């Protein structure tokens, strides 16, 4: 399988970017061992927008590794998506999906990457129960509800979600060895 690894780690304020670099390396190592063909990019190191469009067209699966910043993706990853997806008009998506002649064609159905998939691997300081426990911060809605607009941006270009990997408590109680082991299991289970 052709897998494109996007590392959205960045050193900023109290984030060092190292947890994300380490999980990105874990994905590279694990998936290479399994015989997958890989391409990768570290967003914060810079990129060529047209090459990134080609990477999306090349891949069967895209993996986003990124920290939770203010309840979602870091601005660097949002900027990357704004730039790359916009340049992908005509190759990654045709249009917004609607048709004057066919009212059954809904908004968001114009993606051209059908049959391909993506996965989120996320690091958060928030503990697991903040996402999953009713009455806690995210009202029991779970991590994928927190990333609803992000998921929709991927669906817009035709991609289908794979199960999300979430590393919690990465500042207050970092357990990098435990998260590496859990992420390897997650990847082996999915791929
Ligand atoms: C602007 C901003 C907004 C934020 N918003 C939120 C938010 O809304 N919700 C939330 O929960 N969190 C939030 N955070 C926290 C953020 O999610 C974490 O800082 C981030 O996930 C940590 O990832 P990192 O790669 O930067 O880790 P790092 O800062 O590099 O590492 C975290 C800890 O793990 C240790 N570590 C990392 N890698 C290794 C390794 N290989 N071996 C041994 N130890 C290691 C580091 O020494 C450090 O103690 C925010 C942070 C910022 C900067």
CATH superfamily: Flavodoxin domain
* Run of helices and strands: EHEHEHEHHHEEH
Instruction: Assign the CATH class.
Output: Alpha Beta
Percent of residues in beta strands: 15-25%
Number of strands: 6
In helices, the fraction of residues equals: 25-40%
Poorly predicted runs of 5 or more residues: none
Estimated radius of gyration: 17 Å
Bound molecules: flavin-adenine dinucleotide
Structural class: alpha/beta
Largest sheet: 6 strands, parallel
Query: Distance between the terminal alpha carbons, to the nearest Å?
Result: 9 Å
Tell me the count of domains: 1
- Average pLDDT figure: 98
Shape: globular
How would you summarize what this structure contains?
38% of the residues lie in helices and 16% in strands.
Structural overview:
The protein is globular. Helix content is 38%, strand content 16%. It has helices spanning 18-33, 49-58, 75-87, 128-132, 143-146, 148-156, 176-190, and strands at residues 2-7, 37-42, 61-67, 117-123, 160-161, 165-167. Helix 1 (18-33) runs parallel beside helix 7 (176-190) and helix 2 (49-58) crosses helix 3 (75-87). The chain is built from seven helices and six strands, in the order βαβαβαβαααββα. It has one domain (2-190): 3-Layer(aba) Sandwich (Rossmann fold). By secondary structure, the chain is α/β, with parallel strands linked by helices. It binds flavin-adenine dinucleotide (FAD). The site of flavin-adenine dinucleotide (FAD) has 24 residues, from helix 1.
């Amino acid at each position: 399988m052709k897998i494109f690894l996007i590392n959205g780690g960045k050193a900023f304020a109290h984030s060092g970017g190292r947890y994300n670099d380490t999980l990105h390396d874990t994905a590279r190592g694990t998936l290479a061992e399994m015989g997958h063909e890989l391409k990768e990019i570290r967003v914060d190191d810079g990129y060529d927008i047209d090459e990134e469009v080609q990477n999306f067209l090349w891949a069967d699966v895209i993996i986003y590794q990124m920290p939770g910043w203010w309840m979602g993706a870091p601005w660097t990853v949002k900027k990357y998506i704004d730039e790359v997806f916009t340049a992908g008009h005509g190759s990654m998506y045709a249009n917004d999906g609607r048709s004057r002649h066919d009212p059954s064609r809904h908004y968001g159905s114009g993606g051209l990457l059908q049959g391909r998939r993506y996965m989120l691997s996320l690091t958060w300081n928030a503990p697991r129960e903040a996402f999953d426990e009713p009455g806690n911060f995210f009202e029991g809605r779970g991590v994928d509800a927190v990333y609803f607009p992000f998921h929709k941006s991927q669906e817009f270009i035709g991609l289908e979600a794979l199960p999300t990997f979430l590393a919690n408590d990465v500042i207050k109680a970092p357990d990098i060895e435990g998260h590496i082991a859990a992420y390897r299991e997650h990847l082996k289970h999915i791929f």
